[in-house]
Amino acid sequence: MADMRRSSARKGRGEVPKREEILNVAEAHLTRLGYRGVSLHAIATEVGLSKPSLYHHFPDGKEELFVAILNRSLTEARTALESVISAQESPTEQLHVAVHWLMHEPARGRGIELMHDVTRFVDAKYHATVAEAYLNAHYRPIHKVVAAGVESGAFRAVDPVFVTWSILGLIGGLMEVNLLSPTTPAPRIDGGESQLAEEALDLLLHGIAT
């Protein structure tokens, strides 16, 4: 996604507003080099600006720039997640497609990966902004589905807040352990994210009791 944005930006400097072009190039650098490896000078050079001019668009520099990238990525994630949810009718079907989408999300928008990277290095003053963007992108769409399911009787009378965090926590944990070494005794995504998503959702909906 970042490469496509950068390619689009470089087709014609007049086609993309300068702030968006900066974000496109900076995201490509972040994807390739990680937060610590990114140079504002290199970004400014690629978009045809001086470094002081880059600070005109992002006065707080690197931190503000990458928080803006994260916010944009999470906004796109929310739009995509809400779209797949709205295409289904029942709360159970909506949870199915939501869990499938979330299991694939790192490859689509890198929202969570970006959030981990950015929050590790940016000043605490940005943390509330990042948290709100995450809540809007992932928590609130899932909470809406769970709450509606409880209200309609599709799900038993559980606390939607607890269930929503349980879903996100389980998915996040499964994605994290799959980043460990191949010898780690953990469920592998090698067999397919869809299968793992089904197993995770089955556990959430039915538990482990016989």
TrEMBL record:
The keyword Transcription regulation applies. Pfam families: TetR_N. Residues 39-58 bind DNA. Residues 16-76 form the HTH tetR-type domain. Keywords: DNA-binding, Transcription, Transcription regulation. InterPro entries: HTH-type_TetR-like_transc_reg, HTH_TetR. The keyword Secreted does not apply. This is TetR/AcrR family transcriptional regulator.
